[in-house]
Amino acid sequence: MMQRKSNKEIGLALLAIGFMLATVMPAFAGSQGSATPRPLAPVPPIPANGILLPNAQKDNVTTPAKVELGAMLMFDGRLSGDGSTPCAACHRPEYAWSQPDDLSFGYPGTLHFRAGQTVLNNIHLNKYFWDGRSLSLEAQVGAAGFGQESNNVSAQMAEARMRQVPVYVKMMQEIFGEPPTWDNAARAVAAFERTLNTDPKDVPFDRYMNGDRTAMTEQQIKGMKLFEGKAGCIQCHDGMLMTNQDFHNLGLPRNEAFDEDPLRQISIRYRSKAFGILNYDEVDEDKGLYFSTHRPDDIHKWRTAQLRELKWTPPYMHNGVFFDLEEVVDFYNVGGGPNLDGGAALAGKKDPLMKPLNLTDDEKAALVAFLMALSSDEMPGKNYKIPRIPPDGIMTATGALVALPEKVTSKKK
User: Fold this and answer.
1) How far is CA 125 from the centre of its chain?
2) How far apart are CA 164 and CA 407, in angstroms?
3) Location of each CATH 1.10.760.10 domain in the chain
4) Which residues of 313-334 are buried (b: 16+ CB within 10 A; e: fewer)?
5) Model pTM?
6) Residues 265, 253: contact at Cβ < 8 Å?
7) Beta-bridge partners for 303
8) What top-level class would CATH report for the domain 200-372?
9) CATH superfamily of 64-198+382-401
10) Mind listing the pLDDT tens digit for each residue in 247-284?
């Protein structure tokens, strides 16, 4: 027989819930730029073993074995619903661990409503997705796996598949002390992603900041001064990755795909319902941070993007509306665009930082040159060797999992 909880117990439970909300909600608290922007800085050098900050996530210490496992899982379609869409389908090494489309293509039968982002330098972030709703890389990997427009897999199916692979069973037992689980798969992929970082030796800006005064051209140095001064970019794009990870409404133009493709409208309405939007059937565009907070002032706010590797990761913005940096600089130079929906009540408020910059053509060119100097000389990931994906095994009558023999293709004589 169930006992009724006392008022004191209920009160303590509500207090605990309130405390949890108080600790989570600041992650979604937008501001009008950094009051005191952090100075621009180079990224740290990469150790010989490739593992930067092994204790970045204290409950998921990065080890070589965990990275090896995560690399295989990153490219393994078993972690998607129909087996066709691994994480690397959108985060492709040949595109600097990003993808070249304005909006992600999505899981088969769907089309995504946001642009994909590179996973490079994720180790230095503490908010993930364009709306910042995941506060750890492990949570981001898990959420993407469940996302109907991305991997669209259930934890139960993913676990059953991994437990049919002798290599995964062995590695999971050695690394985590238990058979394959979804949570541990997410930990392994997160550990692998934390090894995907910009090497400061390959970046003109980093070489310049580390003492090589010949690494950047006069035009790029001029652009850096504009970035920190007249253009005011540093108010939001500060620090090592050039992002304060805050949320802003820039008045971005609408991606025409939402008016042309029903699958994108279906995805955005589905996501609206999943986030608890009451009038979800009327939503025909991405409302940004509003989906997480339900605060009207957060409509069309998105997390400030990092500016590393811009040369290799077009198009730009959450909806991929700009295909080159000249377009981006032109947009900011006129103070952004009008509020979406023509300034309607639920269009959100454009950030007051978005004001005309009055940059000359020479100044705009210098700013673009500096932004290009934040990228590696060669595309990161271009020469990455994709790991071999281990084959399934077969369960015997005695309950033993036995590796299947490799299929050998013989040439006809």
Assistant:
1) 9
2) 17
3) 64-198+382-401, 200-372
4) bbbbbbbbbbeebeebbebbbe
5) 0.88
6) no
7) 247
8) mainly alpha
9) Cytochrome c-like domain (1.10.760.10)
10) 999 999 989 988 888 999 999 999 999 999 988 988 88
